[in-house]
Amino acid sequence: MKKRCVCLPDQRFHNYLTRTVSARDLFRLKVKSCSILKSEILIFARSLCKKKPKETPSCSSCRRSSPPVFISLLSVRWEEERYEDGVKWKSLEHNGPYFPPEYQPLPDDVNFFYNGKKMKLSLAAEEVALFFAQMLDHEYTTKKVFRENFFKDWRKEMTRQERLVITDLEKCDFRELHAFHKDKVEARKALSKEEKQDQKDANQKIVDKYGYCLLDSHRERIGNFKLEPPGLFRGRGEHPKQGMLKKRIQPEDVIINCSKEATPPAPPAGHHWKDVRHDNTVTWLASWTENVQGSIKYIMLNANSKLKGEKDWEKYEVARKLKSCVDSIRDGYLRDLKSKQMVARQRAVALYFIDKLALRAGNEKEEGETADTVGCCSLRVEHITLHDELDGSECVVEFDFLGKDSIRYYNKVPVIKKVFKNIKLFMESKDPGDELFDRLNTALLNKHLSSLMPDLTAKVFRTYNASITLQQQLRQLTNKSDNVAEKLLSYNRANRAVAILCNHQRAPPKTFEQSMANLHSKIVARKEQLALAKTELKLRLYVRFVLFGVSMVDRKAAAVKRCEDQLLKMELQATDREENKQIALGTSKLNYLDPRISVAWCKNMDVPIEKIYNKTQREKFAWAIDMTEADFEF
DNA sequence: AGCGATACTTAGAAGACGGGAA
DNA sequence: TTCCCGTCTTCTAAGTATCGCT
Q1: Are A75 and A18 in contact (CB under 8 A)?
Q2: How large is the average pLDDT for residues A509-515?
Q3: What pLDDT score was predicted for residue A14?
Q4: How crowded is residue A546: how many other Cβ atoms within 10 Å of its Cβ?
Q5: Which residues carry out catalysis (predicted)?
Q6: Chain A 279-318 residues in 7 Å CB range of strand B
Q7: What's the N-to-C CA distance of chain A in angstroms?
Q8: What residue is closest to B12 (Cα–C1')?
Q9: What is the DSSP secondary-structure string of A235-256?
Q10: Is A298 or A510 the better-scoring residue by pLDDT?
Q11: Do the strands A275-277 and A255-257 form a parallel or antiparallel pair, or are they unpaired?
Q12: Distances in Å between the alpha carbon of A123 and those of A128, A381, A427, A530?
């Protein structure tokens, strides 16, 4: 089905939505201005009409009638009423969260052994034991903290008798449980085609029932409609709580949020919700408090929803606004480097880092509750080393710390003299464990930033610098005359420059070396094939009048061409993959790069958008794909 | 100012899927 | 047709930021 875009003169984002709708759905929307829009839709709807109408719905605002045609992938912009400040919706209806299946007790022939003796565990203890057994192949289970936390929490689930017996994790033998789990995974893989299809159908039913909600009469996908199943907490890095038991969430733990008029979702039989609220200033549909960290978790909409899309658009608009005043803000913090006030100096240096290196803000964290990681404001003296001179540069700051997700940030950066001197000053008579910016925190920093520009916070710099870098790199790296494969390599390289700036790392894939070798051997094979094809082509040219018609020669020439193209493509792919070994592009693509830059680039370069964004990404960025012209500038 | 609660974005890992080579 | 590997999708942890209270 062809996509059709109805454009209103005003292209502000809130007029926008893409979705599969029926004509009837369209009319249920509160369409304010119906002149251009409604007639356009009607024309389009009529052109798609195949079935005879059963009834004739009419538009709520103009009372025009139209047959109930079903339009697929119609992309529409319309004017919806803007809500007053803070209000996120007028109506919200959903079926509540999906609960994970109950625990299935182990069969009798699968046993846990303690100190070499078979031991039948109570249901609760058995379930938790299985959590551990399932993870035996994982490095986690070798870590002291993980084992201790697990054991402590496991004992809490045991009966008094079990607790008396099981006093040492080392004496526990989970091997049968582990094997049982592995068999189960294998069995699932080995299911017949039909059985797999049945599974799929069953899953689809769950998605159909729980995966969507009705928000202001739009059917929207929910991002995480399944409650998190119980298990062992897997923190990142040296997390002090790793291995603790994540308890099963009961309906009594769950708060439901929906509109007053809606029928609230029914709790599972014999249960009740913790609360049912009607708060339209928030976007979540359900929430619960998780037991390991005590934080609140939410069920929210999918990234392709209007609510999330609008927010995303706003984020990039703020970053673009920063573009127009970043020069004066830079002047400001460079001036502040000489301020008489210590706070201002610290703030200036922190901003210099955040702007130049795209560091995160660095909120303070509760000690001992999480892994020891830092961001800009929470940097400690031990995380930086100053070099008056290093590798031919003066005033070099060496950073070495663990950031978000315990990903290491290591960088040697030449800085301007004033910054260097200030850092020296901040470090004076401090211990390695002391804070570098002892007068500064993120609240202070953000307060200052918002006084410079409305909505400006520390993280906007990351968005701004990421997006502007992509735009610059794309301009620098791509030529209109390149072929698509070359253009894509350039795009990925631009993307990679951003990922490096933002320090988006990944563990090198386990199979990396192998797959790289495979690719290289394929390239070698292709080269041989090409050489052969070329020889044959020459031969055929030579004997063209004797043995072959001209077309045969043409065909061979085409084969050579095809072979050359494929070889080139593979070589580019190899370069791309090699450069990408430890770098993750996805995070920046999804969260930092204004999609309109990529869309405009695709239009300018005649690259199909599908080469850049997969289906999910296209859905998330539908707003940008739809509204962006080739001349867009970030 | 400091703090805890809250809401929402950003993040890498793991698991599921599916398309091409053998 | 099967199997393998890269890509997509899901999962949920870990950040940022703000607000209201003391």
Answers
A1: yes
A2: 71
A3: 35
A4: 7
A5: 592 (o-(3'-phospho-dna)-tyrosine intermediate)
A6: 279, 281-284, 287, 289, 294-296, 298, 300, 308, 311-312, 315
A7: 31
A8: A506
A9: -SSS-TTTT-EEPPPPGGGPEE
A10: A298
A11: parallel
A12: 9, 50, 56, 65
Structure tokens, A272: 């009740």
Query: Given the structure tokens 């057994």, which residue do they identify?
Result: A133
CA–C1' span, A315 to B15, in Å? 31
Alpha helices in A299-341 (DSSP H): 306-336
Q: Which of the four pLDDT bands, split at 50, 70 and 90, describes residue A547?
A: low
Instruction: Indicate the average pLDDT of chain A.
Output: 85
Nucleotides of C under 7 A from a protein CB: 5-19
| A97 token code pair | 């969260």
User: What is the pLDDT at residue A56?
Assistant: 37
What's the Å distance between residue A611 CA and nucleotide C13 C1'? 30
With beta carbons less than 8 A apart as the criterion, state whether A263 and A167 touch.
no
Would you say A397 and A415 are in contact if contact means Cβ atoms under 8 Å apart?
A: yes
A194: which 2 tokens?
């039909």
Residues A290 and A246: their CA atoms lie apart, in Å, by: 8
What CA–CA distance (Å, rounded) separates A502 from A357?
A: 8
CB A463 within 8 A of CB A382: no
Question: In which residue are the tokens 């590798």 written?
Answer: A391
Question: Residue A479: which residues within 8 A CB-CB, separation 6 or more?
Answer: A486
Q: Residue A383: which of A418, A409, A356, A413 has the closest Cα?
A: A409
CA-to-CA distance for A91 and A215, rounded, in angstroms?
A: 6
pLDDT at residue A268 is higher than 90:
yes
User: Which domains, ranges and CATH numbers included, belong to chain A?
Assistant: 4-82 (no CATH), 84-302 (2.170.11.10), 308-456 (3.90.15.10), 466-627 (1.10.132.10)
The b-or-e profile of A241-267 (16+ CB within 10 A means b, else e) is: bbbbbbebbbbebbbbbbbeeeebbeb
What is the maximal distance between C-alpha atoms in chain A?
95
Is A592 a known active-site residue?
A: yes
Residues, chain A? 634
Asked if A633 contacts A608 with a C-beta cutoff of 8 angstroms, the reply is: no
Bridge partner residues of A408 (DSSP): A402
Given the DSSP bridges, would you call strands A245-246 and A231-232 parallel, antiparallel or unpaired?
A: antiparallel
Please compute the mean of the pLDDT values over residues A227-239 and round it to a whole number. Answer: 96
Q: Is A503 left (phi over 0), alpha (psi -120 to 50) or beta?
A: left
What tokens does A459 get? Answer: 């993280």
Q: Mapping DSSP to helix (H, G, I), strand (E, B) and coil, where does residue A507 land?
A: coil
Region A576-594 average pLDDT:
89
Q: Half-sphere exposure of A390 toward its Cβ, with a 13 Å CA cutoff? A: 13
Residues A52 and A4: their CA atoms lie apart, in Å, by 22
CA distance A217 to A199: 31
- Which one from A140, A352, A409, A592 is the annotated catalytic residue? A592
